[in-house]
Amino acid sequence: MPRFVVHDHRARTHHHDVRLERDGALVSWAVPKGLPERPGERRLAIRTPDHPLEYIDFAGTIPGGQYGAGEVSVFDHGEYEPVTWTDDRIEVRLRGGRYDGPYLFVPFRRAGPDQWLVFKARNRQL
Prior knowledge:
Layout: E1 3-10, E2 14-22, E3 25-31, E4 42-52, E5 60-62, E6 70-86, E7 89-96, E8 100-107, E9 115-120
Antiparallel strand pairs: 1-2, 1-6, 2-3, 3-4, 4-9, 5-6, 6-7, 7-8, 8-9
């Protein structure tokens, strides 16, 4: 099964980076308030550039002046099951230490490019 990681990123703004392994890279979103923990909750998720697979275990300091400068630690990690993956809908079942269950990512086009919403779904929804 493919892997995922949630980084706690203390950069210019504190946020979590959610990264899903796919096609040899980590598809990534910055989630300012972290992944939702209750079904029906939604959070803004900003699509960021894909990262190399080597970032899945990264923890440390990104030096000032570089993209993402700040402190990074692993907040959660595990595997995920891809349920649906299209340009308009990404459904996954996370299996991690903190996050476990179905999550849904959908574009939030009214908010602008690269803006998504992430939902914690109810188990029967996916």
